[in-house]
Design the sequence.
């Protein structure tokens, strides 16, 4: 009888241990990374880099899924984490200029105050946070306002990317039929 109890305990223990080894399910808002220069890691391994690494954005990509986004899911006038899950983070690998002001090399959380005609983008020094629940405006490094532009097509998955510009790059944020772009210089 003692052997049966020990064997049963062992089987239960193995089942619990195996269940703990299972990977978590897929997130419905997967994590993504955008670089400037675009595709920097691929260019690096191909030995095709002709510009230094300037910036990297790490963010989660929620899907539209037929929902009304701006003014509903994303409330106007309230701080938004720019995506889903963890708050979006941007890292600069050198000092950059945004709206005529210097933003020092480093890592920042990127938030937005969304309105119909303009967004205020917020660079905040508190990193590694979930959503905008612990947002502290006293830790803001920079706030800048960009105009909202409407698109004729729909961006289903929230997207952040960089586009080369004459004197730097534009950080382009797109979702639904809306996009904004922030000029960044160096």
Sequence:
């Amino acid at each position: 009888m003692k052997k049966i109890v020990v064997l049963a305990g062992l089987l239960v223990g193995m089942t619990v241990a195996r269940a703990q080894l299972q990977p978590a399910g897929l997130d419905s808002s997967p994590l993504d990374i955008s670089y400037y220069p675009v595709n920097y890691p691929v260019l690096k391994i191909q030995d095709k880099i002709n510009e230094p690494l300037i910036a990297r954005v790490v963010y989660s990509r929620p899907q539209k899924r037929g929902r009304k986004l701006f003014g509903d899911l994303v409330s106007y006038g309230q701080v938004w984490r720019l995506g889903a899950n963890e708050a979006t983070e941007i890292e600069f690998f050198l000092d950059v200029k945004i709206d005529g002001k210097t933003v020092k090399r480093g890592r920042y959380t990127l938030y937005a105050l969304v309105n119909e005609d303009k967004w205020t983008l917020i660079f905040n020094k508190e990193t590694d946070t979930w959503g905008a629940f612990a947002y502290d405006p006293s830790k803001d490094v920079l706030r800048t306002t960009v105009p909202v532009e409407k698109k004729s097509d729909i961006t289903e998955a929230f997207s952040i990317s960089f586009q080369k510009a004459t004197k730097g790059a534009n950080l382009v944020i797109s979702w639904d039929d809306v996009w904004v772009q922030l000029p960044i210089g160096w």
